[in-house]
Amino acid sequence: xxxxxxxxxxxxxxxxxxxxxxxxxxxxxxxxxxxxxxxxxxxxxxxxxxxxxxxxxxxxxxxxxxxxxxxxxxxxxxxxxxxxxxxxxxxxxxxxxxxxxxxxxxxxxxxxxxxxxxxxxxxxxxxxxxxxxxxxxxxxxxxxxxxxxxxxxxxxxxxxxxxxxxxxxxxxxxxxxxxxxxxxxxxxxxxxxxxxxxxxxxxxxxxxxxxxxxxxxxxxxxxxxxxxxxxxxxxxxxxxxxxxxxxxxxxxxxxxxxxxxxxxxxxxxxxxxxxxxxxxxxxxxxxxxxxxxxxxxxxxxxxxxxxxxxxxxxxxxxxxxxxxxxxxxxxxxxxxxxxxxxxxxxxxxxxxxxxxxxxxxxxxxxxxxxxxxxxxxxxxxxxxxxxxxxxxxxxxxxxxxxxxxxxxxxxxxxxxxxxxxxxxxxxxxxxxxxxxxxxxxxxxxxxxxxxxxxxxx
Length: 457
Prior knowledge:
By secondary structure, the chain is α+β, with helices and mostly antiparallel strands.
């Protein structure tokens, strides 16, 4: 492991003791000591000195080892109860590990739970001094920054009201304003940015992106888009164990695949993980066969689904049928998908996503028509071909990927049968590069100057 780290965890584990009844806490504290004192008598009577504990152990984290380098932003994802919040509290020092250790280099500022560190009876102003002191600022330093903190929080006259009268959004504003002004080296955020109005969320994200240029961030959340956008790497926790770590894009896409399968009641074995991510692809019943002009899809990518249908071929061409690798914005393109059906499916829906190099979805479409009942059914053994013809938007230059999928049901209630991440990669060359993610199709551009020029004389 590198010596230039911000956070290092080695064999980190945390167990919580679960008691069935409140009285068992007292019994656990007293009985073992009494039995040790009475050990000679118990041995003489032929009775055991030791007895089973009055508690059971719940391991929130098990043998976790990872490292976060200085200047890195790492996301923590996982379902509720996977150990994310416990990990962040161990890093902050508000919990002590049962096994292993965690080291942090530098001052830590954390936004864990809304209002954590606040006294509800104190005013907002008093809580600023309280929370800033906990985070390492002196009284004088807090006084010097108080005006900036209150301006960032923007809670106006409520600053001298008790925090117990605040809404959750106001409490989050004040908490975030404090950590934004304590000169932290390591920032830890636990899903708190999901609260608050859109204006303040944008304000927080602007500040956060500026902080990333000089500090280290550990970001926990369920928003895959935020993880992909903000983080360099990600860690997936599952029932206290590290399931996967790697690039933010790879980890979030794999996590989403397993989560979608679980939601549909499918076994985890239906998920195929790309070999380069450490997954073991399942053997296909037969190698995919694609007609001329389509690329066959094998099992080397990340995919999931019931397996009742399988996308076997994909084609991406211009209007004349020529294959595309480099696409200019405004060009008419055709996406063709070939799908083999393994069981009778009613109301099938075929769709696709276009993602940028970070894995953020920039375009999506499918064959479902709102207000029109789907009528496309397919029998086992049949082959379905879906065709999408559209004008490629003026995306920013770079690499993009196409992720196709087939499902059955409706837009809201459906079952995914095969979803393939990054089945096809292409490059975009925009007609005009204005620095935006997508350029709008402008219908008219004009400038009108009113009035006549004044002539001096």
